Amino acid sequence: MKKGLPEIIREIRERMSLNQREFGLMVFPEISENAAQNKIKRFEQGAQEPVLSEIVMLAKAMNVSIPYLFGEDEDKSRFDPSTMCVLEDANFVLTNGSKAQQTALVTDIMVLSQAIKENLCLRKEIESLTNENQQLKNIAAPAIIELPDDPGR
Q1: Mean pLDDT of 50-77
Q2: What's the farthest any 2 CA atoms get from each other in the chain?
């Protein structure tokens, strides 16, 4: 029988010889000690499902692939951010994740899409301002007249 995400998280944490508090702080260093411990506890009990960003943090901390966390990858292929394909992982969550994880993923994708659009708009604006600045320099350069050092001459 295939293990579920809660069992796999607990099994790997125990194999790492960490308690829930220690593991929580390792995975979620940006939140309080109690919040990190409670998050791991809820994941292991199946009371809360991690969203995509939390799945990535768990896989990274445990040094396993995302499919392994879902019980799909028996060889425990290592987490490698330089070769990890975000689209493959997103597709995996959409295919195998819960409704809450799928909804969170779609929300993350929409936020990312908006950020990319804003970034492109800012780049175009910077490019436009750079071009305008260069044009102004070209116009102003011939108009600069050298003044003598001594205005009384």
Answers
A1: 79
A2: 98
